[in-house]
Design goal:
801 residues; 4 domains; six-stranded antiparallel beta sheet; five-stranded antiparallel beta sheet; 13% strand
């Protein structure tokens, strides 16, 4: 038996804790030994266990092997050691099924002891991830306590309601954890309704909503994910994620309530927040939130779906939202776009951008300023006060809570509606005058955006000022039939300039660029190339920033991995025009860890052509690391040539190229003020210099034209002048040149580079005619700083001066 023990010990060391494959035959053979032989073998292995170094892998492996041999034997000589090992396991995310660590749990349960909650969580997570591991799956199925996994704040709060295996709260949570399908079945719903009836809908809602409000918070204790792979602490516990899906479905069975819709919408967004190396936290939970919202028949739920339609970029969830809105539109017999318009609630606003609510002797005032809602207060005498009156906190706590929630809802919806309106230029949308006034101009919330835009009424351009729609000559326009958004591409330049003057005269700040919108007309170079534009080729972009921005702008893009794989170009489909736009890109670099993330995705992209195809044309693709794009053809399918750029409608060409210019302007490494060394190995130094101080693109030219009008009004006007590509600023220490495209700075003497990293929230430069140009705000803030450079106290900047 001693020899067998020695051989078993060698096996434990050689297996390195991986008891799959051929090792399974060895462990099965040991388990099948006669009982008497296993008693002697277990004792011999236990003696050798203590001869191994503490906290060694060999000792851990041998402990597993001992429990394999002694699975039904009396006595438990290594109980203390097993508990210590289980405690270590409890700090992990999961264990590999091939390690056979389930036998430790089996031995502990056989001894009549319950596993610690953290250990239960590990085995549950491991069973969900295991492939063909019936032993681990069967073990997890027997681990019914606690009802949820510990480690997440929301779950631990929920388990404070746990009233034991026979209690109704326990049953409700246990049923929620069975939500493993994409949608609830009739049987699941029936059981859920019975559980809700045991408490009443209001009581269930009052309990569940606060739980879901805690989803996404940091874990109550971190997990050790090992030296490889992404950090799992930012993701959801996969076992608890099933329960989250079930709770979302459960809420959809309750009577509609505004807080329910609000919470489900937040759950969707929280579940799609990205974790480095993992991607979205848990798309399945996000999808469950969408399914739940689609099942709630209320204006608030429809509003959340419409809002999410403008915010969600994850493909599968976005498709689910789109299907839910299409289904609602079909049920009401309305076009999809009208559903999105009708879905926008007023959130308590009683007039465009404002509301007043009396709470006791105090008055709450909601006012929309730009894309933010502000809540202020007046006392009984009508005098403004800075804080919430004490009487309101004491006597109107519920109303105050709902009021604050409504202000947050307004902020979210304003941002969503601004993005939706910005996409309408390519939607070819027109409105009848009456419905348009109701849903846009006079809508309490959307009106705060619509009244800052330019429209055409029966072909006549109008803006809103002094309570009326007005022409350039300020003539009121009160009736009409057909309304469209005004776009500068087909307008005379003199008209465009006149409308810019009109906006400034009426102090209108547009929610996005419209009168100052960049227009991209066909160039001679593009006429020469015929079917493609090289206007935005040969740029180096940060891939993940480009990927996120492309999704927001309605483009479909696949992250490129540094592997032997192909990917299509970034693509935007334009169904209203029967077109598909493509931006050809490829991964940049080949050194893992330098040019890639830990998960192998490229950090940077190199850009190429922009092309247009009929929307149904076969898709192009190229190797992720670069190479020729080829059209992927099915059997018998003929290739389709790209369309001549001269055949592309000017509005479509301009808007697509504007998107691409935006991608480059935001995601280019040339915008990074810390990259003056040229990045890894200095290989991007030439590009960084040429982009950071080179010729201006169209958006920078627009910025320059605006600065010509703004600078004379600034307090530092006498220290500034525009010349070529730069804003020149005269400081007391040096002369400075700020590039109008990148915001990078050169200082005298000898045009030395000055690195100033802009802080978040940079702005405060007075009136601007539109929102959203961060580079413009950066240029102005740097000019303000450098014009008074004797007052600079930042040591990093001072060291360069």
């Amino acid at each position: 038996m001693g020899k067998l023990a020695e051989e078993a010990l060698k096996a434990a060391v050689a297996a390195r804790g991986h008891w799959g494959g051929l090792w399974t035959e060895i462990t099965d053979a040991l388990r099948d030994l006669p009982r008497e032989d296993r008693v002697r073998l277990a004792g011999a292995l236990a003696e050798r266990y203590h001869s191994l170094g503490e906290d060694s892998d060999a000792r851990r492996n041998l402990l597993t092997l001992i429990d394999v041999v002694a699975h039904d034997l009396p006595g438990d000589p290594l109980a203390t050691e097993r508990l210590k090992e289980l405690e270590r396991i409890g700090g992990q995310h999961s264990v590999w099924y091939g390690s056979r660590l389930d036998v430790l749990a089996e031995a502990e349960l056989a001894a009549g002891r319950a596993l610690p909650p953290a250990v239960v969580a590990v085995y549950r997570r491991s069973a969900l991830e295991a492939y063909r591991a019936p032993g681990l799956t069967e073990l997890a199925g027997r681990l019914t306590e606690p009802v949820l996994n510990v480690g997440e704040e929301w779950a631990e709060h929920a388990m404070r309601h746990d009233d034991g295996p026979d209690g109704p709260w326990h049953a409700l949570l246990a049923h929620a954890a069975t939500a493993t399908a994409s949608k609830p079945t009739a049987k699941w719903d029936k059981r859920a309704r019975a559980l809700v009836d045991a408490f009443g809908a209001d009581r269930v809602r009052a309990a569940v909503l606060p739980w879901l409000a805690l989803v996404g918070r940091p874990r109550t204790f971190p997990l050790d994910n090992g030296p490889y792979g992404p950090d799992v602490n930012g993701a959801y516990d996969p076992y608890n994620a099933n329960a989250l899906r079930g709770l979302a479905w459960l809420l959809s069975l309750l009577p509609p309530h505004p807080e329910t819709a609000r919470t489900l919408g937040t759950l969707v967004e929280t579940s799609l927040k990205k974790v480095a190396g993992l991607g979205p936290r848990n798309p399945k939970v996000a999808n469950a939130g969408v399914v739940a919202l689609a099942r709630v028949d209320s204006e608030a739920a429809l509003a959340e779906l419409a809002r999410l339609a403008t915010r969600v970029t994850y493909k599968n969830t976005a498709k689910l939202i789109d299907g839910a809105l299409e289904a609602r539109a079909a049920a009401l017999g309305l076009p999809r776009e009208e559903i999105e318009e009708l879905a926008v609630p007023a959130y308590g606003l009683t007039e465009v951008g404002g509301a007043e609510l009396r709470l006791g002797e105090a008055t709450a005032v909601i006012g929309v300023r730009g894309t933010r809602a502000l809540l202020s207060w007046r006392n009984a005498a009508g005098t403004p006060v800075k804080t919430v009156p004490a009487a309101v906190r004491r006597d109107h706590a519920d109303e105050l809570k709902e009021l604050k929630a409504a202000v947050k809802d307004i902020d979210k919806m304003l941002s969503a509606q601004s993005e939706r309106l910005d996409r309408q230029f390519l939607a070819r949308r027109t409105w009848s005058y009456g419905p348009w006034r109701e849903r846009y101009l006079d809508h309490p919330l959307v009106g705060t955006l619509a009244r800052r835009l330019l429209w055409t009424v029966d072909g006549t351009p109008v803006g809103f000022a002094d309570g009326e729609l007005r022409t350039l000559a300020d003539t009121p326009v009160t009736t009409g039939e057909r309304v469209e958004l005004w776009h500068p591409v087909d307008r005379d330049p003199a008209e465009v300039v006149a409308w810019r003057d009109w906006l400034e005269r009426h102090a209108v700040t547009q929610p996005f660029k419209q009168a100052h919108r960049e227009v991209y007309l066909l160039t001679d170079a593009e006429r020469a190339t015929g079917t493609y534009s090289n206007r935005f080729a040969a740029h180096i972009l940060r891939q993940h920033q480009f990927h996120s921005l492309a999704a927001v702008r309605g483009w479909r893009d696949k992250l490129r991995l540094c592997v032997d794989d192909e990917a299509p170009p970034a693509t935007r489909e334009l169904p209203q025009w029967g077109l598909r736009a493509e931006y050809w890109i490829e991964g940049e670099g080949e050194e893992y860890g330098v040019d890639t993330t830990e998960s192998g995705s490229y950090l940077r992209l190199r850009t190429d052509q922009v092309r247009f195809y009929p929307i149904g044309a076969p898709e192009n693709s190229a190797h992720c690391g670069g190479g020729e794009y080829r059209m992927w053809l099915r059997d018998g399918e003929d290739p389709v040539e790209p369309l001549p750029l001269t055949d592309i409608p000017p509005l479509v060409l301009s808007e697509v190229l504007r998107d691409v210019d935006l991608f480059v302007g935001v995601a280019s490494v040339g915008n990074d003020p810390t990259w003056q060394d040229g990045g890894p190995g200095g290989r991007f130094r030439e590009y960084w210099t040429s982009y950071g101080f080179g010729e201006l693109n169209q958006s920078a030219e627009t910025r320059r034209a605006l600065l010509e009008r703004l600078i004379p009004r600034l307090a530092i006007a006498d220290r500034c002048r525009l010349e070529g590509r730069f804003l020149h600023v005269a400081g007391d220490r040096h002369q400075y040149k700020i590039h109008l495209g990148s915001g990078n700075i050169l200082r005298s003497p000898n045009d030395q580079y000055l690195c100033i990293v802009p802080k978040a929230g940079t702005g405060g430069s007075g009136y601007l005619p539109f929102e959203g140009d961060r580079t413009l705000a950066v240029v102005l803030s740097k000019a303000m700083l450098l014009a008074d450079d004797l007052k600079i106290t930042d040591p990093t900047i001072l060291s360069q001066l």
